[in-house]
Amino acid sequence: MVASRPDPEDGRAKMLKISQLGSQLLNRLHAKLAPEREEFFAALSPSEYSTLCSLLERVYRERQAQTPSRR
């Protein structure tokens, strides 16, 4: 499900990446969980849901920018 390789910045660490098979499984899981996700976020309007996703993405990108060697 994942592939690993040495971290180019720290040879002691391993970098993990989802394999093609893992990605396919993750996509199927996302599709299967869609009804539960929709129910969970039902209290939000489409606009509010979009705003929430945008804010979370911004927080994630900022966090990634602060710790580039942990990607």
UniProtKB/TrEMBL annotation:
Gene3D superfamilies: Winged helix-like DNA-binding domain superfamily/Winged helix DNA-binding domain. The lineage of its organism: Bacteria, Bacillati, Actinomycetota, Actinomycetes, Actinomycetales. Residues 1-61 form the HTH marR-type domain. It comes from the Bacteria. InterPro entries: HTH_MarR-typ (IPR000835), WH-like_DNA-bd_sf (IPR036388), WH_DNA-bd_sf (IPR036390). One of its GO terms (molecular function) is DNA-binding transcription factor activity. This is HTH marR-type domain-containing protein.
